[in-house]
Amino acid sequence: MLAILAAALAASSSTPILEPAVPWWERVTVTFDDKGTQQSCMYQFSLIPGAAATCNEEMASSIKPRAAQPQSGVFSKLTFERRFSPGGKLDSGKLQPGDKLLGQQVLFMTIDAEGSIGSCKVLATSGDLIPAYDCDALKTEQFRALASASTDRPREAFMTIMVYGHQEQIA
Q: For the sheet containing 74-86, what is the strand order?
């Protein structure tokens, strides 16, 4: 499930060439009813504010509920998110109140002047649902080329990939 979603996130047609100089996030949030049936799937990208969209059919069908037993009268939300942090400052990984971290992976990367990934290293993983998005997947991404590459030194950045959940009682 997570490998398919990671590929869908990375290949999303609504994602433009990625920005290497500013922080951004991208997320897919899926809601399941108390019977485990998918009720919604939303895609959001922080560099296109207000442009939340319904997931395409391929992405939506790739996401299944967790193996846990559904609870009567409870809706479950599962969110897959990646946060890009340029420079030496790592994203805090902070979640909204009520969200529970299920899995996380932190990648360190360098981006060359042409916008390609020069190097990548997994720095940390945690949780029971480790995201399948890894350095191989990251290397397929294209970042915007630097307009004035005054130095041959690559840019450094972090990518934090998280899976988290939230449950709400049906009224």
A: 53-54, 38-45, 24-32, 74-86, 155-169, 100-111, 117-127
pTM of the model: 0.81
Digit-coded pLDDT (tens) for 90-121? 888 899 999 999 999 999 999 998 889 999 99
Residue type, 95: L
d(CA 22, CA 111): 13
Distance of alpha carbon 118 from alpha carbon 170, whole angstroms:
48
Angle at 51 between CA 47 and CA 53, to 5 degrees: 120
Tell me the CA distances in angstroms from 21 to 27, 97, 151, one per residue in order.
19, 29, 15
